[in-house]
Amino acid sequence: MTIVEDLPRTLGRYQLIELLATGGMAHIYRARLASSQGTEKELVIKQILPHLTQNRDFIDMFIDEARRYYARLVELLPDAPDIDALRNTLRVLGEEKGGAS
Question: Which domains does the chain have, with CATH numbers?
């Protein structure tokens, strides 16, 4: 299945730049956050698929995964990610680091 999106587009305070991957539960985007001081930060956003936003068990699992991810990142990075809910969409935000993955 090919997914076509109009990018870049805005999602809350973030600008989605590129769709990196889509799986059975979420889209993964490369995104940008502009600060009021004029600086920009690139991030990776994991956003659950719309049909899963009403499934409480799935949402609990998604948030649990995000918390484990967050706890591990706090150990590794000074700028830890955010778990965010916006307009019935759950997102996990993590700073993108350059280099091979």
Answer: 9-95 (3.30.200.20)
